[in-house]
Amino acid sequence: MKVLSTHIVGLDHIDMNAAKERGIKVGYLGDLFGNIDYYEKTVGIVGLGSIGLAIAERMRAFKVEKVCYTSRTKKAKAAAKVGAEYASFDKLLKQFDVIIITCLLNPST
User: Per-residue confidence at 105, pLDDT binned at 50, 70, 90?
Assistant: First the structure.
């Protein structure tokens, strides 16, 4: 992991010491989103609800190589609209350049 971004106020939900030790940049989505070169990168999205779907749609403008998603259920119809493919969570973590998490944080996720 190279970048960790959040869209909510505050960073108290992030272990800043651990991020610093690992050389991970931490910031707000708006600050970091435009500073990453997505060209020909593989992008994995965790959660393909309305936010994940909107992000997947916007990724096309960055000319990414591939967009995949993982979710509790396969969402073939929504994914087809944005050219995304389903992949397991493990595959996203191991094989993708950028991982974007758009799901709720709760015990099941």
Answer: confident
pTM of the predicted structure, to 2 decimals = 0.72
Residue 55 and residue 48: Cα distance in Å, rounded? 9
CA 74 to CA 84: how far, in whole Å?
Answer: 11
Asked if the 37-109 domain carries CATH number 3.40.50.720, the reply is yes
Do 38 and 99 meet the contact criterion of CB atoms below 8 Å apart? no
Q: Where are the domains of the chain?
A: 1-36, 37-109
- Amino acid 45: pLDDT: 94
Binning pLDDT at 50, 70 and 90, where does residue 74 land? very high
| Percentage above 90 pLDDT, the chain | 42
